[in-house]
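User: I'm curious whether this sequence folds into something compact or stays loose and floppy. Could you predict its structure so I can see for myself?
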Amino acid sequence: MSRIMLATAFTLGVAVGPALAQNPIEWRPDLAFGTRGTTDYNFRGISQTARGPAIQGFIEPRLGPLYIGAWASNVRLPTDPSAEIDLYGGVRLPIGPVTLDFGAMYYLYPNERQLQFPAGTILTPRDTDFWEGYFRPSW
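Assistant: Here's the prediction. I'll summarize afterward.
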């Protein structure tokens, strides 16, 4: 896996490096934050709030193209977590009118419990937290 990541980083450096040299990056601090309400929080087509409303918020400190952040929402899932908290970080590289966003996100569901039938049949895992990498180009 590390060889694939190293090869990908090298390829991106060779492909993106000259374009970045023409577009200097400003290393200034910035902060984004916000909240919103929704009538149903859907993640990849599945309601995370049992078709109920959700209150969500985020905070994202930035330094030039680098960023880290946290996003949270109430959820209503079979494992009964107290919330969904997404922790993420990455780099947004502006190249002319295009921005390349590379990062990773950790989906955290605190205080989950395993759902079982009385006979001991396990219906859900005890811990559904997971990592995910992403690449989002935008124009």
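Summary: The chain has a mean pLDDT of 87. Residues 2-22 form the longest helix (21 residues).
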